[in-house]
Amino acid sequence: MIRDVIPAEELLKKARAVGQYYGFTPLETLTAKTRGSRKATSYPETLANLKLDPVADIVASFLHQFQNADAAPSVRQPLFVWHTNIAPGRAVQKKKAVIQFHALGTDRALADAVVIRALLALSRDLFREEPVIRINSMGDKETRARYARELGVFFKKRAHLLPEDCVSCAKRDPLEAAELVVARSGADDLPTPTEHLSDMSRKRFEDLLEYLETTETPYELSRDLLSRGNVWNDACFELVVDEQRVAWGSHYSDLARHFFPRAPFSAVGAILQVASEGAVSAKPAQARARFSFVHIGDEAKRLSIRLAEDFRRAHIPLAQDIGVESLNEQLYLAERRNSPYLLIMGRKEALEGSAILRNRQTQENTVLPLMGITERLKAIS
C-alpha cells in the first residue's frame, strides 16, 4: 500500500539528491541572486482568460517566481530547475507537499527523458514501490485542432450510445467530453490523438520513446491519458503507484509564453504531490561535488541518464548537467563547482563503455571502464 504521509525532512533530502544527480538547479539558487534587488512582476493579464487546472496553477506560480528571478534559458544554456513548497525551518502539517522538475529552453526529447527519470528515481525512493509510467502525446496546435474535429465526429455518430451530459459537453469542448468518457467507461472506442500527430509532433514523440527505451526506462503507452490544449502540448505523462497518480507532467510552452512573450522557449515540467508533515531543519551546507560528469553526444547523454542512478545509490559526490549540450558550457559549470575531478565521456568512450577521469590539479587522465566505475570513484572520494 502506498505511503499516505511522508516526513518533510525525508522528502526534501531525497529531492535535493535527485536534483543534484540529474542536473537540476534549485529555484532558490536563482532567486537568491536577485532577492531584494528587483521589483516583483505581476501575473500576466492574459492568464485571466485561461482555465487553469490545479497542476497548471502550480506551474504558473513557478513561472512567476522564475520570471521574478530574472532568469531565462538560452540556446547555449537551457535551464533544468527543481522547486518545492517545503521550506527549511518551517513546519509542515499534513499539507500537500509539491516537488517540481522543469526543463526550460530545449526542444529535444532529452528534456522529457531527464524529467521522467528524475521523477521515477524520487518516486521509487519515496513510495518504495515501482511506479508505472503512463505516456501519451496530444501533439501541437495543428494536431489538437485535427483531433478535436475527429472527436466531434465521434460524438455525433455515438450520441445515442453515450451519456447525455457527455454529448452536450462535446458541443462545447470535445476534449473535455473525451475526459468524461474516459472517466466513466474507458477509452477503447475513442479516437487516439497519436493517430493525428503532425509530422513534427510525431518526430518528437518517437524521439522521446527512443530515449526511454535506450535508457531502459519502463513505460506504457496510454491512449486514455489526455490533456487540455490551452496549457499543455505534445507529450504528457503520469506516474502511478498502487493505482494512484502521484505525478503528472507535460510540455507547457504555450503557458510559458504568457510570462516570456518577447523570448518564448520550449518548456516541459512535472509535478509530484504527496501529503507531508513534520518540521524541516535549517538548510544544510552544500557539500562540494568531488566529481563533475561532463558528456557530449547522444550516446554519452543516454549513458549519463542511466549512470545517474548508479552514482546516487552509491552516494558518489558527483554532479552533472545532463541537459546542457555544449561541452564548453558543461566545463564552465564544472569550473564553478570547483570539483577536483572531471569525469569525461564522448561518443568514443560511450561506445567503448569507458570514461576519462581527469585530475584537474595535475591534468592527469585515467581511462576507467564503466563496469565497476562506482567502486573506483568511491575509492578516490
Walkthrough of the structure:
By secondary structure, the chain is an alpha/beta fold. It has 3 domains: 215 residues, BirA Bifunctional Protein, domain 2, CATH 3.30.930.10; 51 residues, no CATH class; 90 residues, 3-Layer(aba) Sandwich (Rossmann fold), CATH 3.40.50. Helices cover 41% and strands 22% of the residues. It contains 13 helices and 14 strands. Strands 1, 2, 3, 4, 5, 6, 7, 8 and 9 form a 9-stranded mixed sheet that branches. The protein has a 5-stranded mixed sheet with strand order 11-10-12-13-14, sandwiched between helices. A hairpin with a 7-residue loop joins strand 3 and strand 4. The longest helix has 19 residues. The radius of gyration is 22 Å and the shape is globular. The chain starts with a strand and ends with a helix. The model has no long low-confidence stretch (mean pLDDT 89).
Descriptors:
3 domains; 5-stranded mixed β-sheet; 9-stranded mixed β-sheet; 14 strands; BirA Bifunctional Protein, domain 2; alpha/beta
